[in-house]
Amino acid sequence: MARFCSLYSGSSGNSVAVGCGGRYILIDAGKSAKKIKERLAQEDIDPAAIAAIFITHEHADHIAGLRVLASSLKIPVYATEGTAAWLEEHGHARNVDLRLMPPDGVDVGEMGVTSFATSHDAAESCGFSVHCCDGRRITLATDTGVITPVIHEALSGADLVYLESNHDVGMLYNGRYPYPLKQRIASDKGHLSNQSCAAELPLLARGGATRFILGHLSAENNMPLLARQGAVCEFSRYGMREGADYLLSVAPPDGLKTVVF
């Protein structure tokens, strides 16, 4: 069975675990190695079962614990060429088995992992699809200003979609952030709003997806209730009912219990 766990989510740090066949991978390591190991223990995941770490991009909330965690577990780290170059240049690859993400994907244990480009102000950001041993597919896309055709195609047909619902537009523009930062967040290279995320979800559900987890919510410019309500309203416009046509969760900062399906 496929397993998905949001260990941490949001501006203060991001990391998820995906498992199948007794092995796991981590996507991002945006908290300290100690905190990530604590969350793994809470979910009864043995760190020895972690086979690799995949990095979406180089921002601190995605790599804060990377070097210590990867070197202590002695496992490879996969990143796109641009992200890998940044990690090496800034010292985050020291004592780390850093590998380039192959264009056609890589097999880790009984899982196949492929990447796709996202739209973010980073060296070479990406999302990941994990093809599990039982035929299930889990796809993650965070830190993207827009849903591009590439992202939509990657998300389509996934059994579980973990998608960014970062900010409420009204809260962002009426909040205390300086205007240039607001512009950056709302840009096509920034973060996905609740509205943009919600608009994508029914389209994916029509393509067969039934499990959705909203992630990377801003603590300053969003509320879980707003993200959830926006998604439910958009599903309703298409005549879709929660519990019957789709399952929906919102990942809190300190993580979400493991989903097994």
Describe this structure in words.
- The chain has 261 residues and is an alpha/beta fold.
- The protein has a single domain, classed as 4-Layer Sandwich (Metallo-beta-lactamase, Chain A).
- Helix content is 30%, strand content 25%.
- A seven-stranded mixed sheet has the order 6-5-4-3-2-1-14. Strands 7-8-9-10-11-12-13 form a seven-stranded mixed sheet.
- The protein starts with a strand and ends with a strand.
How many beta-strand elements?
14
CATH third-tier fold name? Metallo-beta-lactamase, Chain A
Name the overall outline. Answer: globular
**Total domain count:** 1
Strand order of the largest sheet: 6-5-4-3-2-1-14
Feature tags:
261 residues; alpha/beta; Metallo-beta-lactamase, Chain A; seven-stranded mixed β-sheet
Brief sketch in words of this structure:
This protein is of the alpha/beta class and 261 residues long. It has helices spanning 33-42, 60-63, 66-73, 81-89, 149-155, 169-174, 179-186, 194-206, 224-237, and strands at residues 3-8, 15-20, 23-27, 50-54, 77-79, 98-100, 106-108, 111-117, 126-131, 137-141, 160-164, 211-215, 247-250, 259-260.
Question: Any chance you could write out the topology, listing elements then pairs?
Answer:
Layout: E1 3-8, E2 15-20, E3 23-27, H1 33-42, E4 50-54, H2 60-63, H3 66-73, E5 77-79, H4 81-89, E6 98-100, E7 106-108, E8 111-117, E9 126-131, E10 137-141, H5 149-155, E11 160-164, H6 169-174, H7 179-186, H8 194-206, E12 211-215, H9 224-237, E13 247-250, E14 259-260
Parallel strand pairs: 3-4, 4-5, 5-6, 10-11, 11-12, 12-13
Antiparallel strand pairs: 1-2, 1-14, 2-3, 7-8, 8-9, 9-10
